[in-house]
C-alpha cells in the first residue's frame, strides 16, 4: 500500500501529548506531528516533531499565522484540542481548504451549541434529551426556587466556560447571589470574556446540580457528520476538571443516546459528552466537540479514532476494530516529569 | 561494597509514582518498593513491587495494619507522602522502631506546626519570618479590615487543609462571610474534620492574599534534624493545587531563608515550603514536611534526596553531588495513561 505522507497540526495542544502520540502511531512514520500553543511551555511540545508558539486565539493574527504556518509546513490536517479554538477555526475552514488544509472541526453553528451552555440547553431540550434546569438570570432562578421547580444545591458557572474554571456550588440563597456576582466579574477578567461579550448580561449560568454517577461518552461522526460509533465510560476520579480515572462499560442505553445525539447535532469527529445517571434517569450535562480528557480511556481499551480520522482524510474506510472498545478496561492518568530546558 | 537489601514502604502513595521510581533507582536492585493507599486505584501502585490497600488513616486499625505489614514484609523504612498521614505516623514512631522499621517523619510537634496553619503562622512569626496576616475569627477579620490592617482580596480556607481543597478568594465582605460559613460546613463533611475537631470554632483560616511571584523550596534536614541543603524553584504553572511546571534558580537569599527555617523547625527529611516574593519582600505561606509536588523539579536538575535518605538510614554520608541542583533547569509534569486492569 502506497500511502502519501501527511503532516498534522494540533492547535491549543496544551497537555494532550498522549493524543499526539496516538496520531504518531497512526501515521506510522508517514508524516510529521506539529504542535501549536500560545504557551511555549506546553508539555505536548515534547511529543511533536515541530512545535510553534502562536498568537493568542483571539488575536487578529491568529488565523493568518496558522494559514502561513500550514502552507509553509505542508499541513494536511489541523486538529484543534481546545474549546475556544473551535468556533474560530470553524469560521476559517474554507480559507484553510483553499490552501489544501482540512480542519477537523464542525460548522460554526455546532461549535456555538457546544460552547454556549445556554444553547446546549435549548438544543438538548428541543431534541428530547434530559438536561438540568438552567438559568442566566438571578431573578428567574429565585422565582423557580420559590415555586419549588428547582432546589439547592445549584451550580453557578460561566455560560461560556470550560473545565473547572469558575465553577461554584451554591447551597443557599446567600451563596447563590455572591457566586453570581463573582462569576460575572471573573468572566470579565479572563479570556472567557471574548465569547461572553456576545451577551454580557447573561454570561453566568445557574444550573440544577445533578445527582447520580457521572459517565463520559465519545460520540464519533465521520468527516461528513455521519454517525459512526459511541464509547461509554464510567468516571472513577476527576482532577483539575477532567477525567483522571475511568472504566469502559457496555451500555446499550447510553450507546443509543450517543447515536441519537450524533444524528441531531451532525458534528464532525469526536464529541465528548458528560452524562449523569441516577436510577434510570439519564441527563446530559455538557457537549465538547473535540478529543477530551476522557478519550484516552477509550483508546486504552482498543479504540483508534486517530487512525479512523486519517483514513477519512484519505477518503478510505476505517478498519472495524478501530471503532470498538473492550469493556471493563480501567485506566488512570499518571504524572511523569519531563525536562523542557536544561 | 556489600549493601544490605532494604524494603521501603510508601504510605498514602497516591499519584507520586515518580517518587517511587526515584527510590527504586536509589535502591539499585537491593530491596523492594511497597506502596500503601486506602484507594486501590492509586496510580503509584503501578510503580511498586508490591502494593496494599490500607484502612483509612483515621481508622483505629490503620497503625496496627501497617505494623503487621511492616513485620511481614521486612520493611526497613516507611516514607509517608500525605500531610494528614504525618502526625498519625509521627505518634507511632517508637512502636515501629521496636520492630526495626524507621519512619522518615518528624516529631508530632513538628507535624502539628506544619498541618495547623494557625500554628504555622505563630511558629513563623515567633522566629522572625514574614507570613501573611491570618485570622480564625470573622469578627477579628472584619475589625482588621475596618482598621486597614489588611485589605481584600483575602483567602478563606480550612485551617487544617491541603492542596486546593476548599480554597476561596474573597474580594468583598459579602464573599468573606459566605465563604467563611461554606468552608466551615465543607470541613465538617470531609476527612479534614478529624484534625479540625481539635478546635471546631476556629477551623477556618482567613488570610491576606500575597502579591508577587510564587517560589518553592525543598529544605532538607538529615534524620537527626540537622540542616543539609536547600533547593530553590520558581513556579511557572500550577494544576490541581500543586506545581505543574518550575525552573530551578540560584538565590542566596532564599537558600539562607531555608537554612534559618531548618534550624528553627528541626524537621526530619524534606520540607516543602511555599514562598511569595514581591520586590525584596519574602513571605512564607506554607510548610509541608514531606516530598511535595515540587521535589521532582529539583530531582530533574540533579538532586537525589532519595539516595541521601537511604544513606542516612544505613548510617552513611550522602555523596555531595546528590545535594546540589543545576540552575536554570525547567521541567513540566506530563500526563500518561496507564492501565489498571483489563
TrEMBL record, chains A, B:
InterPro entries the UniProt entry points to: ATP-dep_AA_Ligase (IPR052032), ATP-grasp (IPR011761), ATP-grasp_PylC-type (IPR003806), ATP_grasp_subdomain_1 (IPR013815), PylC_N (IPR048764)
Enzyme class at the top of the EC tree: ligase
Domain ATP-grasp: from-to ranges: 121-314
Keyword Calcium among UniProt keywords: no
Record protein name field: Carbamoyl-phosphate synthase large chain
Enzyme Commission number(s): 6.3.5.5
Pfam families referenced in this protein's UniProt entry, alphabetically: ATP-grasp_3 (PF02655), PylC-like_N (PF21360)
Gene name in the database record: carB_2
Species: Novipirellula aureliae
GO MF assignments: ATP binding; carbamoyl-phosphate synthase (glutamine-hydrolyzing) activity; metal ion binding
Coiled coil (residue ranges): none
Assigned keywords, A-Z: ATP-binding, Ligase, Nucleotide-binding
Species lineage: Bacteria, Pseudomonadati, Planctomycetota, Planctomycetia, Pirellulales
